[in-house]
Amino acid sequence: MRPDGTPGAALVRRARHGAALWRAAPGAVVLASGAHGEAEAIGAICRAEGVPEDRLLLECAARNTAQNIALSAPILAARGIAQVTLVTDYYHLPRARLLAARAGLRAAGAAPRHGIGRPHRHAWLVLREAAALVAALSARHRP
Question: Ranges for the DUF218 domain (predicted)?
Protein backbone atom coordinates (compact mmCIF):
# COMPACT_ATOMS: atom_id res chain seq x y z
CA MET A 1 0.00 0.00 0.00
CA ARG A 2 1.18 3.50 -0.76
CA PRO A 3 1.56 6.05 2.03
CA ASP A 4 -1.71 7.69 0.96
CA GLY A 5 -3.55 4.37 1.51
CA THR A 6 -4.06 3.49 -2.15
CA PRO A 7 -2.91 0.14 -3.55
CA GLY A 8 0.35 0.07 -5.46
CA ALA A 9 0.77 -1.33 -8.95
CA ALA A 10 1.96 -4.75 -7.73
CA LEU A 11 -1.06 -5.22 -5.48
CA VAL A 12 -3.45 -4.19 -8.25
CA ARG A 13 -1.73 -6.47 -10.78
CA ARG A 14 -1.82 -9.44 -8.41
CA ALA A 15 -5.44 -8.86 -7.34
CA ARG A 16 -6.64 -8.61 -10.94
CA HIS A 17 -4.78 -11.80 -11.79
CA GLY A 18 -6.40 -13.57 -8.84
CA ALA A 19 -9.82 -12.39 -10.02
CA ALA A 20 -9.07 -13.66 -13.54
CA LEU A 21 -8.12 -17.06 -12.11
CA TRP A 22 -11.36 -17.09 -10.14
CA ARG A 23 -13.36 -16.36 -13.31
CA ALA A 24 -11.78 -19.49 -14.83
CA ALA A 25 -12.81 -21.52 -11.73
CA PRO A 26 -15.81 -19.77 -10.15
CA GLY A 27 -16.28 -22.54 -7.59
CA ALA A 28 -13.04 -21.47 -5.93
CA VAL A 29 -12.56 -18.89 -3.22
CA VAL A 30 -10.16 -15.97 -3.22
CA LEU A 31 -8.35 -15.38 0.05
CA ALA A 32 -6.87 -11.90 0.30
CA SER A 33 -4.19 -11.50 2.94
CA GLY A 34 -2.38 -8.47 4.30
CA ALA A 35 -2.43 -5.85 7.03
CA HIS A 36 -2.70 -2.09 6.72
CA GLY A 37 -5.58 -2.23 4.25
CA GLU A 38 -3.98 -4.69 1.81
CA ALA A 39 -6.56 -7.46 2.22
CA GLU A 40 -9.41 -4.97 1.97
CA ALA A 41 -7.91 -3.39 -1.16
CA ILE A 42 -7.45 -6.80 -2.78
CA GLY A 43 -11.05 -7.63 -1.90
CA ALA A 44 -12.32 -4.39 -3.42
CA ILE A 45 -10.37 -4.98 -6.63
CA CYS A 46 -11.62 -8.56 -6.86
CA ARG A 47 -15.23 -7.45 -6.31
CA ALA A 48 -14.80 -4.83 -9.04
CA GLU A 49 -13.50 -7.62 -11.30
CA GLY A 50 -16.61 -9.73 -10.67
CA VAL A 51 -15.72 -11.95 -7.70
CA PRO A 52 -18.83 -12.19 -5.52
CA GLU A 53 -18.66 -11.39 -1.82
CA ASP A 54 -19.42 -14.98 -0.83
CA ARG A 55 -16.30 -16.18 -2.71
CA LEU A 56 -13.96 -13.74 -0.91
CA LEU A 57 -12.15 -14.38 2.34
CA LEU A 58 -10.06 -11.72 4.07
CA GLU A 59 -7.10 -12.16 6.42
CA CYS A 60 -6.21 -8.68 7.66
CA ALA A 61 -3.35 -9.17 10.13
CA ALA A 62 -0.38 -10.48 8.11
CA ARG A 63 2.55 -8.09 7.76
CA ASN A 64 4.85 -10.28 5.66
CA THR A 65 4.85 -13.33 3.44
CA ALA A 66 5.43 -15.82 6.25
CA GLN A 67 2.48 -14.37 8.14
CA ASN A 68 0.35 -14.30 4.98
CA ILE A 69 0.77 -18.08 4.79
CA ALA A 70 0.68 -18.84 8.54
CA LEU A 71 -2.46 -16.78 9.19
CA SER A 72 -4.23 -17.92 6.02
CA ALA A 73 -3.62 -21.66 6.55
CA PRO A 74 -6.13 -22.04 9.42
CA ILE A 75 -8.77 -20.09 7.48
CA LEU A 76 -8.31 -22.48 4.58
CA ALA A 77 -8.19 -25.56 6.83
CA ALA A 78 -11.51 -24.56 8.40
CA ARG A 79 -13.01 -24.80 4.90
CA GLY A 80 -11.25 -28.08 4.12
CA ILE A 81 -8.93 -26.42 1.59
CA ALA A 82 -5.39 -27.83 1.39
CA GLN A 83 -4.61 -27.12 -2.26
CA VAL A 84 -4.12 -23.50 -3.28
CA THR A 85 -2.86 -21.31 -6.07
CA LEU A 86 -0.63 -18.54 -4.79
CA VAL A 87 -0.81 -15.34 -6.80
CA THR A 88 2.28 -13.18 -6.64
CA ASP A 89 5.04 -11.94 -8.90
CA TYR A 90 7.22 -14.62 -10.48
CA TYR A 91 10.33 -13.81 -8.47
CA HIS A 92 8.37 -14.21 -5.22
CA LEU A 93 6.77 -17.58 -6.00
CA PRO A 94 9.59 -19.92 -4.90
CA ARG A 95 9.64 -18.55 -1.35
CA ALA A 96 5.85 -18.32 -1.12
CA ARG A 97 5.53 -21.96 -2.25
CA LEU A 98 8.18 -23.07 0.27
CA LEU A 99 6.33 -21.34 3.11
CA ALA A 100 3.01 -22.81 1.96
CA ALA A 101 4.47 -26.32 1.91
CA ARG A 102 5.78 -25.81 5.44
CA ALA A 103 2.24 -24.83 6.47
CA GLY A 104 0.88 -28.07 5.02
CA LEU A 105 -0.57 -26.59 1.84
CA ARG A 106 -0.15 -27.99 -1.65
CA ALA A 107 0.57 -24.84 -3.59
CA ALA A 108 0.75 -24.04 -7.25
CA GLY A 109 1.86 -20.60 -8.29
CA ALA A 110 0.39 -18.11 -10.72
CA ALA A 111 2.23 -14.94 -11.62
CA PRO A 112 0.61 -12.11 -13.55
CA ARG A 113 2.40 -10.70 -16.57
CA HIS A 114 4.97 -8.32 -15.27
CA GLY A 115 6.64 -5.58 -17.21
CA ILE A 116 10.26 -5.25 -16.24
CA GLY A 117 9.90 -1.53 -15.63
CA ARG A 118 13.01 0.24 -14.48
CA PRO A 119 15.87 -2.30 -14.71
CA HIS A 120 17.52 -1.22 -11.45
CA ARG A 121 14.21 -1.57 -9.56
CA HIS A 122 13.62 -5.00 -11.05
CA ALA A 123 17.17 -6.11 -10.18
CA TRP A 124 16.67 -4.88 -6.60
CA LEU A 125 13.42 -6.87 -6.24
CA VAL A 126 14.98 -10.06 -7.60
CA LEU A 127 18.06 -9.74 -5.37
CA ARG A 128 15.97 -8.91 -2.31
CA GLU A 129 13.78 -11.94 -2.92
CA ALA A 130 16.82 -14.19 -3.43
CA ALA A 131 18.15 -13.13 -0.04
CA ALA A 132 14.73 -13.69 1.56
CA LEU A 133 14.56 -17.18 0.02
CA VAL A 134 17.99 -18.06 1.44
CA ALA A 135 16.85 -16.82 4.85
CA ALA A 136 13.63 -18.84 4.62
CA LEU A 137 15.51 -21.97 3.63
CA SER A 138 17.80 -21.64 6.65
CA ALA A 139 15.08 -20.58 9.13
CA ARG A 140 13.04 -22.71 11.43
CA HIS A 141 9.31 -22.99 10.79
CA ARG A 142 8.22 -19.69 12.31
CA PRO A 143 6.29 -16.82 10.73
Answer: 11-123
